[in-house]
Amino acid sequence: MSLKSKVLGGVILAGCASLYGCAGQHSESALQEASADFQKVKEDSNVLRIAPKDVIRAGESLARADRLSTYWGSGSDVVHYAYLSQRYSEIAREHTNKVLNEERAAKLEMERQRLQLALRESKLLSVQQQGKWLEEQIVALATTQTDRGLVMTLGDVLFDTGEAELKNSANRVVLKIVQFLQLNPKRVVRIEGYADSTGGKQENLKLSRDRAQSVADVLMDLGIDDKRIQVEGYGDEYPVDANASERGRAQNRRVEIVFSDEKGQLGAAR
After folding, report:
1. Cα(85)–Cα(214) distance, rounded to whole angstroms?
2. Beta 254-259 vs 149-154: how paired, if at all?
3. Helix 52-68 and helix 75-122: axis angle, to 10°?
4. How far apart are CA 171 and CA 212, in angstroms?
5. Are β-strands 229-233 and 189-194 bridged in parallel, bridged antiparallel, or unpaired?
6. CA 253, CA 249: separation in Å to the nearest integer?
7. CB 89 within 8 A of CB 40
8. Are 31 and 23 in contact (CB under 8 A)?
9. Looking at the whole model, is its pTM more than 0.70?
């Protein structure tokens, strides 16, 4: 064999090795990404409950890609099955999110209907008796008489950390507020939201306002005119307890409802 042929052969072999190395790195990267995605969906109990078939398909595709990765020249096949695994993992997540949103909407609708039914049933009571009873209830539940007005604090029964959705345990109190405002049409309220120190300042500010708005939305949904409701969010300012403990943080996750006087005059905001 001539020297020229030997040199040419060496160049070709080196080029092939280089190409194979690049392809191998690409397929290995695809396999790692698919494996990470599959691990996430596999550990999500909601995904396993709602989209088990897609999780199984993702696992099967990943296993096939893993087996093929041990064979010479199968880089494109590894990438193909790794892609399929990632896609099935993505489909599983999308399907799960869709079903969870539907379940949440159905739960909220059922709770709204239950509250409306309870409200209709309560109207069967004597308006006079109801008004006196509700006045006593509101005063009993209101924790403080301040320069802002009579303040009712809805505390840790309301929200989970990082969530703006009302817990069901708050609905009984909210229903009393609705009835009280219906029987006192001149009164208005300011709903003030507060957050604990978990998260950043801007995040807490938005979360606190969203919490206050959640309460306002329930009041409006049950017939209170939005012109009678003001909404404010104060983030993690004005804590009532130290944020160093879970108990303290739970106390700071709250909504305060400030009632006007009988003429509709509210005290100054913070």
Report:
1. 39
2. antiparallel
3. 160
4. 14
5. parallel
6. 6
7. yes
8. no
9. no
Are 33 and 82 spatial neighbours (Cβ–Cβ below 8 Å)? yes
Residue in 266, 16, 19 with CA at minimum distance from that of residue 146: 266
**pLDDT 10s digit of each residue in the chain, 270 long?**
554 444 334 434 444 444 444 455 778 898 899 999 999 999 999 999 999 999 999 999 999 999 988 887 778 898 999 999 999 999 999 999 999 999 988 888 888 888 887 777 766 555 556 666 666 666 666 656 677 778 888 765 566 667 777 777 777 778 888 888 888 889 999 999 998 888 889 999 999 999 899 899 999 999 999 999 999 999 999 998 888 888 888 888 889 999 988 888 988 888
Q: Tokens 């500010």 correspond to what residue?
A: 205
Joined together, the tokens standing for residue 143 give: 């924790």
Query: What are the angstrom distances between the C-alpha of 97 and each of 32, 51, 90, 105, 176?
Result: 24, 10, 11, 12, 34
Contacts for 40 with CB less than 8 Å, ≥ 6 apart:
89
d(CA 196, CA 219): 24
Residue whose tokens read 């305060």: 256
